[in-house]
Request: fold
Amino acid sequence: MTYPINSQKIIKVLNKVSKLKELKSDKQFVLKQLFKNLISSFGSPVKLKTYKRNKNHSGIGDFLLKKQNIDPSKTLKTVFLGRPGSGKTTTIFSANKENMLTCEVNATDTVGLLKEKTTIGIDYNECELEGGIRLKLYGTPGQKRYDYVQTQTLSNADIYIILIDLSSVAPFAEFMYYKNIIDNNGEKDALRAVLFTHYDIKENSMTQLSKEIRRKCHSEILTFKIDTRSTEDVLNLLNKLTHINQDPSGFNQHYQQNL
Reply:
């Protein structure tokens, strides 16, 4: 695998692994070791977690391989952006707690003040929604030094979701940072949304911030508040965004229901 590492290259490797008829050792262990080698160029030891609840599940490789049999017209790529600690990994995990792929290392810089672990690669998960639509969920690292991972992951996406942590000192500036990344590297016609997290800390600032964000985007963005730990909240939100993506005429209706 050549630099830079991106989502398409990683998924390609996983698909190849999943096609093997036999593995000499447990698939989960093999995949973890594979990813540790692939992402060693980041310069830090990587802890790769595969969230798995069903012991009889065949593994993340086969899980990803199943997407080959899905109607492409019903498969949407969704990319999450936001600062470290904003809730990207938690949101993606809440969407489907049976399987998730994430790369974590110990936070050694200022991120360590926010949380113990930080994602330096790509979080990946899939979930199936109403109408048989399947979402491919990609979480990008929040640190600026991994901006090449962010830009590589944005291509061919159908939905962009920016998570804004309301406990942040400058939430609007953070929104503008990720907005510019999408503007410069993303798909112009993709649906965009902002999720406000940790609203229990500074809920009073949410309404005004939502207005500023909409004004900056000429009302071409949706804003929501969400508890990233709640599977129900996350799936309801993803269903809503998926319906709007499939039927843009519903944008105005949902816009009026927003903050």
Observations:
- The two ends are 44 Å apart (CA to CA).
- The longest strand covers residues 75-82.
